[in-house]
Write a structure and sequence with these properties.
The protein has about 230 residues and is an alpha/beta fold. The chain has helices at about 10-25, 40-55, 80-85, 110-120, 160-165, 185, 200-210, and strands spanning about 1-5, 30-35, 60-65, 65-70, 100, 130, 155, 175-180, 190-195, 230. The protein has a seven-stranded parallel beta sheet, with helices on one face. A three-stranded antiparallel beta sheet has the order 4-8-7, covered by helices on one side. The relative contact order is 0.19. The structure holds 2-amino-2-deoxy-6-O-phosphono-alpha-D-glucopyranose. The site of 2-amino-2-deoxy-6-O-phosphono-alpha-D-glucopyranose has 13 residues, from loops.
Amino acid sequence: MIWEQAPDYDQLSARAASLLLDSIRANPQIVLGLPTGKTPTGMYERVVRDCEREYHCFKDVTTFNLDEYVGIPKEHDGSYATYMKRVLFDHIDIDPSHTHIPNGMSHNLEFECRRYEAEIDDAGGIDLTFLGLGRNGHIAFNEPGTPFRSRTRVVDLSESTRAANAAYFPDGNVPSQAITMGIATIMASKRIVLLATGSGKQEAIARLRSRQISVDFPASVLWTHPNVHVLVA
Ligand code: GLP
């Protein structure tokens, strides 16, 4: 595991953006796993800015988002589909048919989870996944206690995770479930970059750094992956 400390959020975002764009330069048909949340927005802003200069960055790229809320239409302001359009997809030359986000409005959620895993397989697996870090160590929506063998599935969100995301649902209807890639799905990615920043994350960062691998702290599983880069600020 490579640990890299950036002096501030701006430089963390710049470094993350250059890792992302370098990976596309090295493999223009790369398959990316992408996160949502506050942490990666600076990275996406940089990527968009750099792609204005160097167009065609995303022409042949395929993306799979980590997760999506259940019961929230993709047009809703709080959906991860809207987030991805707003911060990235609407500003780059990606083919919309190459972008994948679980459909939390599916009438058959279990089928949707299996379908999502099959889509990842059909794309040849994920080459590089970016992750954020929850305060309780969650990755994607895999909360503490999640078995490391878990695959894409429907999960109940913890009260702390719902509270952390409540601002995106000003009407108070904060979703209680999500579809998330499982821990094994994430770990199958050939390479992983985890981003963590801010005073609220320092305890989680310290716990990750302590190298104690436990299902009680999902991100700790990353110590068992051969190619992980942790970027903190
Ligand atoms: C949510 C997302 C995670 C994200 C986490 C931290 O729960 N499902 O993928 O990593 O929040 O988000 P933030 O970067 O806003 O702190």
